[in-house]
Design a protein that fits this description.
It is a single chain. Helix 5 crosses helix 6, helix 6 packs parallel to helix 8 and helix 7 packs across helix 8. The N and C termini lie far apart (55 Å). Helices cover 62% and strands 0% of the residues. It has two domains: 160 residues, no CATH class; 179 residues, no CATH class. It is mostly helical and 404 residues long. It is an enzyme of class 7 (translocase). Its EC number is 7.2.1.1. This is Na(+)-translocating NADH-quinone reductase subunit B.
Length: 404
């Protein structure tokens, strides 16, 4: 058959696999009735669409609480004498409710937070979709649904006051430089959401790394637990790990009634969603166990060493768990099936490295008290090496056994 005769078949196959936008949107609602032909396929009820849907559902508790907490923290800030910002995001909210006040209830607080979060997510989603469509068109590939979760995870780790142009720039960098240049979905070795955040964190620190960006009011100047401890304003001297369970401040941090990124504050909500992720086996428990074990062991080691000049040495592991983005990173970022290790022993070692690096960065780099982002990106680079070492160990053990 000539190339000219084969051309219609190629085009038919291209469009038959959902590369057009109409087919893609239709596939979000129900599965295609077509059967695969030509090559061997593994038949399974799970696919990319259902995987991403389940991940989104697991993130829902953290998202809903995070939106509510945005309004709650703004209300508390307003009660201290600050004012609401004069921004376009609040025009619909102010028109409907008359503005945020001390008497605003749950729906008022949720609506206030949603007014800021929704534009951020829509910006990340549309920009991510644009680049996915561009690369799918160029490569003549299917348009995968992975951009939904990439945009979702990226926005959840951002401060609420992040400018939309920085949101667009960050997700662009993450999608292109950490994913598409390596071949697209399934070929990337770095987490796209974290890579995008790392780019804007170092490129525009005054826009995404300042405490004023975490609360949607004018003139906020509070501090998170990590920042206070790094600055020596919060002491854990003589504080044992189990004392946290009787400390009201720890419970506030565990439930999420603190200042932080959009959906990183509530450890409880994140653990609920993470448990669902583990039960559906979309995340491997070995990675989570490794991250937790690495964090606890490293924190205990620094507690034993101690330091008269650095209060972070004394922070117990119970506080490391509920501060910053550790819980979200452990449950949803580190467990990314594409960028993690593939062998069982490799997964655990990969998790231990993340836990170790997180505490190490937090304790020794006081200018950057949050360490989970860099820890995961660093571990992404080591994941193939862990798999290689495990494979070589298995080969040597089998050769030795067969030689006997």
């Amino acid at each position: 058959m000539s190339k000219q005769d084969n051309k219609p078949d190629v085009q038919e196959n291209y469009y038959a696999h959902g590369s057009s936008m109409r087919s893609f949107l239709r596939s979000l609602l129900y599965a295609h009735g077509r059967s695969t032909k030509g090559k061997v396929h593994v038949r399974d009820a799970i696919d990319v669409k259902r995987t991403m849907t389940l991940v989104g559902l697991c993130l829902l508790p953290a998202i809903l609480f995070g939106i509510y907490n945005l309004g709650l923290q703004a209300q508390l800030a307003l009660a201290s004498g600050l004012t609401t910002p004069d921004v376009w995001q609040l025009l619909p909210f102010n028109a409907i409710t008359g503005g945020l006040g001390e008497q605003s209830g749950f729906f008022g607080l949720f609506g206030y937070g949603l007014s800021f979060y929704l534009p951020i997510y829509l910006t990340a989603l549309l920009v991510s979709l644009f680049w996915e469509m561009v690369f799918a068109k160029v490569r003549r590939q299917e348009l995968h649904e992975g951009f939904f979760v990439t945009a979702l995870l990226f926005t959840l780790i951002l401060p609420v006051s992040t400018p939309l142009w920085i949101v667009a720039l960050g997700i662009t960098f993450g999608v292109i430089m950490a994913k598409e240049v390596f071949g697209g979905m399934g070929y990337n070795f770095l987490n796209p959401a974290l890579a995008g955040y790392a780019f804007i964190y170092f490129a525009y620190p005054t826009e995404v790394a300042q405490i004023a960006q975490f609360v949607a009011v004018d003139g906020f100047s509070g501090a998170t637990t990590l920042i206070q401890t790094a600055a020596g304003k919060m002491s854990f001297e003589g504080y044992t790990w189990y004392q946290a369970f009787s400390d009201p401040l720890w419970w506030d941090a565990f439930f999420g009634f603190t200042v932080g990124s959009i959906a990183e504050t509530s450890t409880l909500a994140i653990l609920i969603g993470g448990l669902l992720l583990l039960l559906t086996r979309l995340a491997d428990w070995r990675v989570v166990a490794g991250v937790m074990a690495g964090m606890v062991a490293t924190a205990v080691l620094f507690n034993l060493i101690g330091s008269a000049k650095n209060e972070m040495f004394a922070m117990p592991w119970t506080w490391h768990l509920v501060t910053g983005g550790f819980a979200l990173g452990m449950m949803f970022m580190a467990t990314d099936p594409v960028t993690t290790a593939y062998t069982r022993q490799g997964k655990f070692a990969y998790g231990v490295l993340i836990g170790f690096m997180t505490v190490l960065i937090r304790v020794l780099n006081l200018k950057m008290p949050e360490g989970i982002m860099l820890a995961i990106l660093f571990a992404n680079l080591w994941a193939p090496l862990f798999d290689y070492l495990v494979a070589r160990s298995n080969m040597k053990r089998r050769l030795k056994r067969n030689a006997l």
